[in-house]
Design a protein that fits this description.
This protein is α+β, with helices and mostly antiparallel strands and 701 residues long. It has helices spanning 2-10, 12-30, 48-59, 76-87, 113-119, 137-148, 157-190, 196-214, 223-253, 258-285, 294-330, 341-349, 351-370, 386-398, 413-424, 435-438, 450-453, 475-491, 502-536, 540-563, 569-597, 603-635, 639-669, 671-676, 692-700, and strands spanning 35-36, 67-72, 92-96, 120-121, 124-131, 153-156, 221-222, 374-375, 402-409, 429-433, 461-468, 498-501, 567-568. The chain is built from 25 helices and 13 strands. The strands form four sheets. Strands 2, 3, 4, 5 and 6 form a five-stranded antiparallel sheet that branches.
């Protein structure tokens, strides 16, 4: 490491210009990143909904209806004219309306009222559209809005994806633009130089930019990853830069010349920073073991971000610091961080009550975070947006429409007729469109025109389109999907049936993510436990640290349960690993200082001194992480991103409080157990032979 540190210092100018070139290249690469807005595409290939969608793509040109258009009409002729106009759009594969299920020659008053009101109510005609998967959704939505004008209303997948694309594109830039100055202000108040925070931000921002550019080499990244990864990377890696530059300052204060001071700082900082980074890295890497592909997508980008940030800290930061150390000296100022002496006395006096309260909180917090009401999709629009107005209007007029498509083996017309009758009998079912009840089996399939038969019958399957009065996501949504699967299985016990739709996808997403939870959390805890165990060569220390941070995670994730607020499950799963991996660093730093102080003082004094010496180091990164989270929450209009931000912001503050208040007292109470279970650790016998002030003077000496 000494030799490598020497090379970094020697070639600092070359390193500086290499990073300038990498940043320029990354800007160009960033605009080539392909973003995926379809969460269902991250489901495993073997789940029923994914298999069903693939089978439908093989057998039929039409997929599941995915967009609804409401348009005011005065008569049926206007409705048919609008249907034809919508059908003529290049990106529309299929348009379903009342004429696909009813004979419009018969007066509507004599028709099935439930079916009629599913397509025409209050003078508004509702058309079910199937829009191609490969279309530019923003252009498609603009064209649809032009066709229906101000009086028309649109809801569905094309609106959702267009909204998310615009939000990610515009809001990501805004969030980063706000996070950077906010972090800069926190650093300016917590360091002793006006220039150092600028160096931190340049170095970490360079790492973020390079990592975002590297996303262009992947086939695509999810919109969640694109929206949150840069902010998370910036927030969790800031302490690496702070630690290195502080070491550099300490060596310079001893009178060591700058180049040698930086070489020693790199060598001295590498092990603790590397250990800190590894805990975060493994926390992120645990996400890749999710079967739900969003975990792999986000986990790889965040883990790579940690590695890239480490490289920028140990390569670019030394170059910048050595090029600007004279300016650093000229821009020093007094520290604004308090001494925390009074705070440390209060905390240590409450050691036993704090530990008891911690134990009392652990069980209900664990149960609470497991008992949340979870959302697996998550959809919301800004209040005054057209998307929100249209969605509210159509819901008020027609209720909730859940569109589905079912494939059953072709030819068993009698069985299919019985199935269609059973499906129509379900209380939520508004529309059932299939060959047996729209065309009828009296005319042989081979004699019918291709345009009539192709949406309903393929070489091997019959296609039945279902529209049910079911909300986007609720227990009823999942129950309906499970019930429909059971009904179909009863009629076709040999299988070879396929049901697709948003509720079916959400049901599979729920099943997959729930299975992932135990695996991901278990792997994250195990990996971090092993890193801490190897770092400290101890059995008790990793137990104390992991339990401390897990307590913060449990309390954080039990808040939605206590307040009765639904929690997006992706946010829950991501935060349970991100908060653990990112904030365990604070615990490692606290523990290392406690063990150092215990070499020269008793456990109570060591606990007090640890709080005083560590608080100033962990408060800035925790505040930056929390600020980044809350900025995601306040700025983003995407529900999943907002949820991740909200839980992250609250979690960082909870972790900070628990590390500052609970961990020193746990170390105090478990002092002897830690000594006996740690390799070659010998601590000073716990007898107050000197006053705290004398011990501090001895340590300084």
């Amino acid at each position: 490491m000494n030799k490598l540190a020497g090379h970094i210092v020697k070639f600092r100018v070359i390193i500086f210009f290499v990073f300038i070139a990498l940043m320029v290249i990354s800007v160009f690469l960033f605009f080539r990143v392909k973003v995926n807005y379809d969460l269902s595409s991250y489901l495993p290939k073997d789940v029923p909904s994914t298999v069903a969608i693939e089978k439908m793509g093989e057998e039929f040109e039409q997929a599941v209806p995915n967009t609804e258009v409401g348009y005011p009409i005065k008569n049926l002729a206007e409705g048919l004219a609008m249907k034809e106009k919508l059908q003529s759009l290049d990106f529309v594969d299929e348009v379903l309306w009342m004429d696909d299920q009813l004979d419009l020659a018969t007066p509507l008053e004599l028709q099935d009222k439930k079916i009629v009101e599913g397509f025409l109510k209050g003078g508004i005609a509702l058309f079910q559209l199937t829009i191609s998967d490969d279309v530019d959704v923003q252009e498609a939505l603009i064209e649809l809005e032009n066709v229906v004008g101000e009086t028309g209303h649109i809801r569905g997948e094309v609106v959702e994806q267009s909204f998310m694309q615009r939000a990610v594109t515009s809001e990501m830039t805004m969030i980063v633009a706000v996070v950077i100055p906010a972090a800069l202000i926190i650093l300016l108040l917590s360091t002793t130089s006006w220039l150092e925070p600028i160096l931190f931000m340049i170095v970490i921002s360079a790492g973020v930019l390079i990592n975002m550019g590297l996303n262009s080499f992947a086939p695509d990244v999810s919109f969640i990853t694109q929206a949150v990864s840069s902010v998370l990377q910036l927030a969790v890696s800031m302490d690496y830069a702070i630690f290195l530059l502080h070491r550099f300052g300490e060596y310079r204060a001893e009178g060591i010349e700058p180049k040698e001071a930086m070489r020693r700082a790199i060598v001295k900082s590498f092990a603790p920073v590397n250990a800190s980074a590894l805990t975060t890295l493994f926390g992120f890497l645990a996400l890749i073991f999710m079967r739900f592909g969003i975990g792999k997508d986000l986990g790889l980008v965040l883990a790579r971000g940690v590695v890239v940030s480490l490289l920028t800290v140990f390569l670019l930061l030394p170059a910048l610091a050595l090029l600007s150390y004279k300016l650093i000296d000229k821009t020093t100022h007094r520290s604004f961080i308090p001494s925390f002496k009074g705070f440390s006395r209060i905390v240590t006096r409450l050691a036993i009550p704090v530990v008891i309260l911690t134990l009392l909180l652990a069980v209900p917090s664990y149960i609470g975070q497991k008992s949340n009401n979870f959302l697996y999709g998550g959809r919301a629009y800004p209040k005054e947006s057209r998307a929100r107005i249209d969605a509210d209007f159509l819901k008020e007029t027609f209720g909730d429409n859940m569109q589905m498509a079912l494939l059953v083996p072709r030819g068993g017309w009698a069985t299919e007729q019985k199935l269609v009758k059973e499906l129509k009998a379900q209380p939520e079912m508004k529309t059932v469109i299939g060959y047996v009840n729209t065309v009828g089996t009296s005319v042989p399939v081979d004699l019918l025109p291709e345009r009539v038969i192709s949406p309903l019958v393929s070489e091997n399957y019959s296609r039945i389109v279902l529209i049910a009065d079911s909300p986007d996501e609720s227990p009823e949504t999942f129950e309906l999907a499970e019930r429909l699967r059971t009904i179909v299985d009863n009629f076709y016990p040999e299988g070879d049936t396929y049901l697709a739709g948003a509720n079916v996808v959400l049901l599979d997403m729920k099943t997959t993510i729930t299975q992932d939870m135990t695996i991901v959390n278990g792997l994250a805890v195990l990996a971090i436990f092993l890193v801490i165990m190897l770092t400290f060569k101890s059995l008790a220390i990793p137990i104390v640290l992991v339990l401390t941070i897990e307590l913060a995670v449990w309390i954080n994730l039990s808040v939605p349960y206590i307040t009765g607020t639904p929690l997006v499950f992706i946010g829950y799963l991501v935060i349970s690993t991100v908060q653990l991996g990112a904030t365990v660093d604070y615990g490692i730093l606290m523990t290392q200082h406690y063990l150092d102080h215990r070499q020269i003082m008793g456990r109570k004094d060591a606990s007090m001194m640890t709080i005083q010496t560590v608080a100033g180091s962990i408060i800035p990164p925790a505040l930056i992480l929390s600020t980044a989270g809350y900025l995601l929450y306040f700025i983003s209009s995407i529900q999943v991103v907002r949820e991740i931000g909200h839980v992250l912001g609250r979690g960082a503050l909870l972790s900070l409080m628990i590390v500052l208040i609970v961990l020193p007292n746990l170390l105090y109470v478990c002092d002897r157990v830690i000594e006996k279970t740690t390799w070659k650790l010998r601590m000073l016998p716990d007898r107050p032979s000197l006053s705290l002030e004398e011990l501090i003077e001895n340590e300084d000496a």
